[in-house]
Amino acid sequence: MLHTAAPAQGSHSDQSIPYQQLLEAQSGLILLISPDLTVIGASEAYLREAFVSREQIMGKHLSDVFPDNPNTPGSSPSATLRASIERAIARRERETIELIQYDIQHPDRPGEFMERFWSASNTPIYNSQGQLVCILYEAKNISEDLKTKAQLQQSREKEQVALAQAEQQRLRMERLFDQAPAACAMLEGPTFIYRVINSSYQQLFPGRELLNLPLFEALPELRNQAVYDIIHEVYRTGETYEGKEVLIPVARYADQPAEDIYWNFIYQALLDAEGNVNGILIFALDVTDFVIARQQVESSAASLQTMNLGLEEVIRRRTHELAQAQAEAERQSKRLESLFMMAPAAICILNGPDLVYELVNPAYAALFPERELFGKPILEVLPEIENNPVYQTFLEVYRTGRTHEEKERCIPFVGQGGELEDRYFRYIQQARYNEQNQIDGVVVFALEVTEQVQARKAVEASEQQLQLANKEYDIANQQLIYINKDLDNFIYTASHDLKAPISNIEMLMSELLLELPEESLSRQEVKSILHMMQGSVSRLKRTIASLTDISRLKKEDLNKQERVQVADVVREVALDLEKVITEYDAHLETDIANCSTKAFSERNLRSIVYNLLSNGIKYSHPQRKPHIKVSCRQEDGQHVLEVQDNGLGLSATQQGKLFTMFKRFHDHVEGSGVGLYMVKRIVENAGGSIQVKSEVGTGTTFSVYFSE
Predict the structure, then answer these.
(1) In angstroms, how far is CA 559 from the centroid of its own chain?
(2) Are 137 and 102 in contact (CB under 8 A)?
(3) SS3 (DSSP) at 422
(4) 342-481 has which CATH code?
(5) Which residues form the Histidine kinase domain (predicted)?
(6) CATH classification of 553-706 is 3.40.50.620, yes or no?
(7) CATH number among 3.30.450.20, 3.20.20.210, 2.40.110.10, 3.40.109.10, domain 19-141
């Protein structure tokens, strides 16, 4: 049948067309099968793909040529193929098999099979009398395509796991950055623009605007000082500069005279992806109290030596001890390997309920030089503290989350001689939170003050002799007694959800968008991940903005009081919220005829009214339209501003935590959790108070009491 054919009328050749040769020369994977499923033809491409010769398959039954793999019981691809052929014959049309696993015999290993996946079709061929002549079987090997898809899926899953791990690490580093007791700031570009500052740095300048301003514009008094040349040299050369007890006069508040402040600081160059300097990283610590105390001790030592020779040995030993302490402090504040290793304070992180050492910086390790700390529970390393109150406060901080601080705690430790030695420490124990806002460890910031305490006690022991000295002698003795005044600039612990260097995150996102191919950017899962990352950046920006607002709140704002019309402020805020009122279909009722003129900061009053009104609208009950009423009244000689809503309401437990920074009870609307904290702080700084009455499902009433 395949070798002969009737000659075509009027053809240029009277030779028959070689159909068999045409079939064999086809580039596709083709078999020609008789109605009784005998192989009667095959393309060369099919023979190569199936590793068989024409002699092995011609004239043989299809199931004999391509048997089922006995190692895949429960699967019969030959039966599937026969059923497809039968459907094609019954319907008299082409039958398609989208996917079939039909393993082929290994050409070099008898009895073994090679895994293969195919897509195929069966087309019945009829003659001019409508009789079935044969079946045209066409196949395509899709094994490699399936493997590629599987590998792609595995790659996507690994990428998602890596992104999740990177996000977790980033959040942890953000927390540690803001917990650092040293003041840290990141300056960008040759004009040194403040891009990131932590809480400790902002506390050094509570009355100055810093963020997004150039260094010498935010602190212009630094222009004519040595730091001007130093920081430019670091930016030019990329070499780190470390300053010790450098006197740098600077004003903590704007428009006030500069104060003489002594600093320990490090200027370190920041590099871009090409290794070029693009910014400066600052680590700073105010050591003014320490320097002044040491200077006072040195001055007092000279005076006491002339008045009482009996104290000469005490003064000499004290001077020597102070020199040793200073030398130790200088050694510990050398440039360290990372951000937290540079902190001039002992820092450790204890993980889990067993308080296992997870991170120990060199300053902390130096407190116990003979002991191995990392990776061990604290009681295994320091068994002496088991019955000391310090261990109980560790457990209490881990259980409750409440920060604990000690200014001078005696903790006996076994010394090198094997005997207990009284050692004194100043420390802060603070709970660490994971991504689910659950306590998973304790962060410790510590400073050993044994030498200072011993020196103070030595001076106190000589008090009876010093009573005979003159007035100058008494003053010097008092200066020695109080040389250990608190240093309050180590840590700002108000926030458990710590902020991040957001500019770096945005840069990484931009780089990621540039690196990803268009094909990846069009995939839904990539869009979802990018959307989540952009949402995280937006939330971080709002948090930083909220912290900036909080830092501006201070009692000095009372000096900016002016006569303010309360009713005018309420009306202006209502106009500002007009879009939100329309969006929520809210009704605002005002009874402000009795709102008198107040001596108050207009900006702060607007902030109070805006936060209370916007909260009343946003946290409305889903089953009714928001209704907010604003009124004024007099109570016990005080002016009272009252804002009442019919929203979700709060339980008694929630009311007790309502004014806590970053505390939020409803997550269905955006917010940073600092609005009510700011309101309470503004009111109390002005000598007033705020009260709340609320019932779940009914609504909430805020009453703001202004002092006269």
Answers:
(1) 38
(2) no
(3) strand
(4) 3.30.450.20
(5) 493-708
(6) no
(7) 3.30.450.20
